[in-house]
ABC transmembrane type-1 domain-containing protein (Microbacterium soli), 338 residues
Amino acid sequence: MTNITPTAERVTADATRTIVIRQVRAGGRPPERRRRSVLRQMVPTMTPWLAFGLILVGGIILFGLIGPRLVGDPAVIRDIGLTGPSAEHLLGTTQTGQDVLSQLAHATRGSLEIGFIVGVLATVFSAVFGVLGAYVGGLADEAFSLLSNVFLVIPGLPLVIVISGFVPAESRGLWTIAVVLAITGWAGSARVLRAQTLSIRSRDYVAASRVAGEKAWRVILVEILPNLLPVLASQFVFAVIAAILSEAGLSFLGLGASNSSTLGTMLFYAQNGFALPLGAWWWFVPPGLLIALFGMGLSLINFSIDEIINPKLKHIRQHAARQRRAARAVRRGKGERR
């Protein structure tokens, strides 16, 4: 027998609430806020240059996706010859009377397709050779590192020109060019991912997962890859920029995809049609300007992602956030005193 009477109070819930309140009063954050803070640290701060880059890239992607549905057939030949911009043809026509705006819309789509395919393939290759090799270690890591070093010392563009030159023109399609560009563009990213993986692999939570008997693929996918997302995003953006520029260079040399229209193909035909000596700026300026604007937009986005990866830039961002919070607190205090 005891004099203690049972109580109906929710002891567990109150205890949890008390712990959370104590954490908040002690300067800590509730678990949900901590999770949001971790996710927030993986997203770049919205700055004017990031917004400008997103607008540029988004506008060009929309033009490449929707534009071909709104313009006519770019292959239609008219008997009006080389004419400048007019109300009927906003960007003029080529020597054979083909509408430049129609060609620009379809060429933008082709360049975006190649850039996206190369970006995905190069990122996958770099993740496999960089992350997997560093995690497994031993002979596999040595072999992958040797392969990465071999591709790093080989000059990329000359190798692409040689490979494209050996492929017959009828077999040189969009996928062929994309695979060639991806094969020659993954090595640098693999080295960066390998260094990051070697750093993450030695952390306590990864070691705990391995000791707990987690399978290697699960440790890589669940424990390591989420920490590499900013690096992967940066490498993907860089691969897209390099792919579009390299494809434009190949097409300008006549080694581009034979069954696809790209911005480089437009420049190639403008050069062959003597657009510059004839003063037909409307033929070569729009594709060149579009390549420059798309590269600038992706570079601005990449600089913002660097803010997450680079510890120095990350500390600058956190210091600026603390200053803004302190300034808001000062303003709030002045408002309450009034």
Observations:
- The mean pLDDT is 80.
- The chain is about 75% helix and 0% strand.
